[in-house]
User: Fold this.
Amino acid sequence: MTNRYPTRREAIKAGLLTGAGLAIGRLPLAAEAEESGQLPLITRPIPSSGEQIPAVGLGTNRYSVSTPEEMAPLREVLRGMPGLGGKVIDTAPGYRRSETVLGELMAELGTRDQFFLSTKVTAPDGDVQEGIRQMENSFKVLQTDTIDLMEVHNLNGTDAILPVMREWKQEGRIRYIGVTTSRTGAHESLMEIMRREDLDFIQVNYSIGSREAAENVLPLAQDRGMAVMLNVPFGGRRGSVFGLLADKKLPEWAADFDCNSWAQFSLKYLISHPAVTCPIPGTTDTEHLADNLGAARGRLPDAAMRTRMEQLFDSY
Ligand SMILES: NC(=O)c1ccc[n+]([C@@H]2O[C@H](COP(=O)([O-])OP(=O)(O)OC[C@H]3O[C@@H](n4cnc5c(N)ncnc54)[C@H](OP(=O)(O)O)[C@@H]3O)[C@@H](O)[C@H]2O)c1
Assistant:
């Protein structure tokens, strides 16, 4: 793992910079970047409000660390993210110390207001008090008065805890509510909830290696006006896409949609689906962060190109 700001050459390779005159070894701040000719950031509206968020976020299910040595690379990811145009961070009490680590780092860097924070809650066996305890603890360890998005993790206790989430949204403690799953086998249950509940967001598994959500979950989210966050965006039935693609050469036509890496190939495939708001690739590495956020810049594949991408992926 290499955790430092990408060099100018690496940033250009990641599709982050196109202009000349940028200081070597540091990435520009967002405003500076626009002036310097960086490709424009792709944002997506949250349908229930119209608020725009960047089309690529950050997953933190591997942020449960304790020692200063373990914290250091994660601090660099959080420090670099706003300058790269990133904003959305996904966490959960289920990721053990992830929320605590994020809370400590944001407090230290003074950057809470630069992020759109998404966390989760469960009410096992309908235990509302347990759900309330978890949510109160999330506010405490994230060191924040407002949580941007609260989602029921893995649909666990949805009926019990959603009414409380709605109350807290009314009170302004939570800005948006939703539900998540990362199991294709739970898509039917997810859709049953989507049909009967008003939700701002859903979070679901969808990747070029696992495309089932596109059959019915994504169209339903469009019909119901729900934002769609994507978990495990590099995952798939045959394991991580990187395992399959590591020794393969990126096709030359990937340049037609400003794509410089297999990570960007995977993410641009997802972002270009009309129902998708924001994949949340997990990373603990600043170079991977720059690579991933580079996918939220420049041109995107059209429908014909998306089919070509699927055909290429399926041929491996
Ligand atoms: N039910 C749920 O609600 C649920 C379930 C699962 C996940 N999630 C959420 O979704 C997020 C994403 O899922 P995930 O982290 O399990 O899987 P993922 O995003 O598909 O893959 C993460 C892996 O890809 C690597 N990676 C990231 N960017 C890369 C790049 N540009 N080049 C090469 N490798 C790269 C990471 O390693 P490095 O750290 O070295 O970059 C890590 O090993 C989670 O963090 C979590 O927030 C939610």
